[in-house]
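Recall from the previous chapter that SMILES is a line notation for molecules. Here it describes calcium ion.
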Amino acid sequence: MRKLSLCLLAMLFAVCVLNPLCAFENEKEHAEAVKKVNEIKDQKTRSEILDQIKLGNIDTIKKLEQVLSESKVEYGYYDSIDRGTRDQALKIQLGKLIRNHTSLGYSGARKVMYGILDNVNGKVEGIYSGTKFPYKRTVMLDGKAMPGVNTGAKIARGQKHFLNCEHVWPQSFFNKKEPMRSDIHHLMSADAVPNGIRGHFPFSVVKKAYWSENGSKHGIDKNGKQCFEPRDCRKGDIARAMFYFSVRYNKPIRNFEEESLRKWHKMDPPDDKEKKRNDGIEKVQKNRNPFIDHPEMVEKISDF
Ligand SMILES: [Ca+2]
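With both inputs in hand, we obtain:
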């Protein structure tokens, strides 16, 4: 009997030491955790997560799922991309990865954008002017109405300034067609005035300004072309939205415009706010902007 107990103890010891997933108490959770950890294709991430389990920092499925969701970029979204690939081949691989997203439709996209993605404590900041518009949250992340809340979001509408939606890749270039029109990766919350001024002018550095507000400018560039320049802190956001659209829909960016966008991408790298927005968009649209996750990929593509 004593031998049997010792034997059982030894077995238990072996199982727990050799199998770090032992931290999960019940069998069902244990099996689920094994499955999830085995699905992690990136070896480094897999062993890091195993370490966290060994240390007892992850001991429930809920915690494991949270960690996996936070490290999704690392654990598999880009696995199909051959890291040595460049230029056209890379654009094709990325295009395949990010196409066929789930569209919320134009109304749903704007509600989620104003109500959640760009909403900080009930206010939404216009990308070009920095103006903050009050906007009452009435939807959930799937675009559906929040239970118990009256729909019909309140937008502060003054005489000229009100919150509306900027299409970074101008709508007139794709005849307002779907899914381009509702693709949140290139939609930005904006003040109607600078949004109207931008119209469909290309992005470039303004040498002589006709209009300016809070750093954003409209005027002519070094070649005498009419253009629009966003304020510094949003220059990179605009550039990466343009790169996304170009790859997602296989559309070229004009060379003079690309020259500025590339500089802006470097000047204003992705910050937490932009990364968090990318995560939020993935939750609703099921696709990501690769140039926010991997800014270095811009260098691997010599011509968008
Ligand atoms: Ca920025």
